[in-house]
Fold:
Amino acid sequence: MRTLAIVNLKGGAGKSTLAVHLAVQSSGHHPTALLDLDPQGTSMAWAETRQELMPQVRRARGTTLISQLAQLEQSGMERVILDTPARSETVALQAVEAADLVLVPVEPGAPGIWSAPATVALIKASDKPFILLLNGAIHRARINLATQVKLASLGRVTTHTVHRRVGFSSAMLAGKGSAEFAPNSLDAAEIEALWRYLNDRLRKNRRSPQS
Structure:
């Protein structure tokens, strides 16, 4: 089993939206679970509008996360995505420590750039591999590249970018992922490319047996 944590201590980075769409993409290839550690419960609210069995979406707490992951692995789950809250270092750290790989979505502009170092420092303290992602990019805006350049000083920045598109919200309102709602859209193409990249990284970064 491989576990991806989506973490940013700043709110508004698009963690839940990414978690939902990546989980749907993953479930087309692997038995997948999405664990919602955020008290706001965005992923859980989305799951309540769905009819499909995959991905499995469950509430989770940081204090019981390891045992919940063990149960999922025993049940045959192959991929797990952790949707984490903002402004909770404790829960973020618990998710990071349980993960094989951490994805840090950062929105373009000064607030995202200025807040990213705190999240990266937390991850580095756990010595876990992480990827920075420009999320909610503005089409053809110079601020996209400027943000990526700044982030590159903190760690690996994926060349894959997820743009700000209304299709992501429309799909979620319908209880779908982008791959299901509009499979030929640019939204779906971006998520598919990002998931292929992350899935390849996940294969190379597995939790140690004592985790």
Remarks:
- The beta strands are 2-6, 32-36, 56-59, 79-83, 101-106, 130-137, 157-163.
- DSSP finds nine helices and seven strands in the chain.
- The mean pLDDT is 94.
